[in-house]
Amino acid sequence: MVAPEEPDGVDDKNSARLRSITAEVLEVDPADIDMGAHFYDDLGASSLEKAEILGRIEREFAVRLTDGSVENLDSLDDALVVVGTAGGAGE
């Protein structure tokens, strides 16, 4: 997936927020999370942890993740695309 064009700084801000959410759920340092990391393979997330991460993304970014989009969310990069596409600013 290719991330949509975002105004300067928005992509970085959203990336930081996604890392923070993921780090909190997985109890790791946000600096240790690469945006290309896969939830299961690289981060070692369980299906329940992934569900918690995605639920927090919905709340934080004020977006609704459909069943179809959730199935395709394998990494934080994928989540960033969905958030950007949905226009999730969540401020």
UniProtKB/TrEMBL annotation:
This is Acyl carrier protein. InterPro entries: ACP-like_sf, PP-bd_ACP. Residues 12-87 form the Carrier domain. It comes from Nocardia aurantia. Transmembrane segments: none annotated. It comes from the Bacteria.
